[in-house]
Specification:
The chain is mainly alpha-helical and 69 residues long. It has one domain. The chain has three helices and no strands.
Length: 69
């Protein structure tokens, strides 16, 4: 059995080609995957920000939401 050896540059080019082909052939799935990642990051940031902001009670929130006459 013969052994195939690749230098780092060859490996890099092969991996790049494989990734580009994967994205091209599965564009919709990749887009959905990236959208999920972005949503997860946004949720994580919102939670972290919420942990450092002032707390309000339920009544004060609903009072702000009441229509002004």
């Amino acid at each position: 059995m013969s052994e195939i050896t690749l230098n780092p540059e060859q490996l890099k080019e092969i991996l790049k080609s494989a990734i580009v082909e994967l994205i091209r052939d599965n564009r919709e799935e990749v887009s959905e995957f990236l959208a999920e990642i972005i949503e997860d990051i946004a949720m994580e940031r919102a939670i972290a920000e919420g942990e450092t902001t002032e707390l309000f009670n339920r009544d004060s929130i609903f009072k702000l939401l009441e229509p002004k006459l």
